Amino acid sequence: MSDKRNFSYVVSSFYVFYPLKKETLETFRDKIESKGRSLGLVGLYLLGHEGANATYSGLLSDVLTFESYLADALKAHADSEEELKLEFKKSPSHFQPFKEFRVKVREEIVTLGREDLVPKDRKRHLSVDEFHEMLQRDDVVILDTRNDYEYEIGHFKGAIDPKIKEFRDFPEYLKASGLPKAAPTLIYCTGGIRCEKAILAMEEQGFDNVYQLEGGILKYLEKYPQGRWEGECFVFDHRLAVDAELKPTTKFKFCPHCGQPATQPITCKRCDAGAVVCTKCLEASTHKETCSRNCAYHFQRRPDKKGAPQEKSFLAQKLTEASGEAHHSG
After folding, report:
1. Cβ atoms of 56 and 63 closer than 8 Å
2. Tell me, what's the pLDDT at 311?
3. Residues 6+ apart with CB under 8 A from 216
4. Annotated catalytic, 233?
5. CA-to-CA distance for 323 and 99, rounded, in angstroms?
6. Which of 8, 160, 309, 315 could be joined to 273 by an S-S link, Cβ 3.0–4.6 Å?
7. Is the pLDDT of residue 329 over 80?
8. Which DSSP string corresponds to 32-86?
């Protein structure tokens, strides 16, 4: 079946570990925010002394204008003479997946809870082709560094799920994992940034044969949409996930109760509206067989009383909130 959606927007993301002057971060934040908004972009841009991590969306011409501006802007606020290399990952969207363009200053541009653990150089990056080739081997350990709900909707064939709720739990997982420290180990994440710190955490604990996927899952799917990837890839914006062709998911919806990916269609027990709820919420309580938190609350109090359908879908509600900051990752 052909996809009839109008993909008029481009979603672009990048990260760079590149020392920036602490004393000018606030000024730099204002400049980046002003530039992005003047171009009509929406998204989230994280800045810190260790570098930048961003995902944003707009018309292709505006995205490219913004990206041509970024290199000089970053160099102007650099705290070193290091060479700057930016690599952008792009995918199509038929809607704007953020509410507005925001720039935040953070201690870490990806939160491991270790401000001292900053990548200083390239640590055993594998190109997409090299990673794909190693995935075929029987002697490698494939370790997902993402959260459990990300793994659940898609992962590389044979990958281990660390079952963590957030990235800062990864070092503790390693300590208790019992994984063979000398075995060749492939690690991956959405865009590559988590692996940059994960490999350092693994080295601290004696893992000395670890390789990371350069550019992450998004870069892999650009070249191997029918490769070793199974399922879809969770993303931290209102697309929720992208399929193997990097297009916004048509399979998953936001669960109205927990916000996680959902596939179970229901008829709301309070207002009779159709909705999609995740399996975990349905299994947790009968009052979650409702289309919203509001209906769940009222149905729990008065299961015998019907109510009017909700005026906004879960996605519409999310798009009116300044959300996404705590979960931005890659």
Report:
1. yes
2. 56
3. 89, 188, 189, 190, 191, 192, 193, 195, 330
4. no
5. 8
6. 309
7. no
8. HHHHHHHTT-EEEEEEETTEEEEEEEE-HHHHHHHHHHHHHHHHHTBSS-PPP--
**Tokens (6 digits) for 322:** 């300044």
241 forms beta bridges with: 234
Q: Domains of the chain: which residue ranges?
A: 9-109, 125-235, 253-316
Q: What is the 3-state secondary structure (H, E, C) of 105-146?
A: ECCCCCCCCCCCCCCCCCCCEECHHHHHHHHCCCCCEEEECC
Q: What local confidence, expressed as pLDDT, does residue 286 receive? A: 80
Number of Cβ within a 10 Å radius of residue 80: 10
**pLDDT-based confidence at 82, cuts 50/70/90?**
confident
Structural domain 9-109, CATH architecture: 2-Layer Sandwich (3.30)
Q: Backbone dihedral region of 201: left (phi > 0), alpha (psi from -120 to 50 degrees) or beta?
A: alpha
Average pLDDT, integer, range 91-104: 97
Condensed to tens digits (0 to 9), the pLDDT of residues 22-65 reads 999 999 999 999 999 999 999 999 999 999 999 999 999 999 99
- CATH topology for 125-235 is Oxidized Rhodanese; domain 1 (3.40.250)
Kindly indicate the confidence band of residue 227, based on its pLDDT and cuts at 50, 70 and 90.
very high
Structure tokens at 22: 């602490």
Give the whole-angstrom CA distance, residue 34 versus residue 58.
15
Coil, strand or helix at 291: coil
Q: How confident is the model at residue 120 (pLDDT cuts 50, 70, 90)?
A: confident
What DSSP designation does 206 have?
T
User: Could you tell me the two tokens for 153?
Assistant: 């909707």
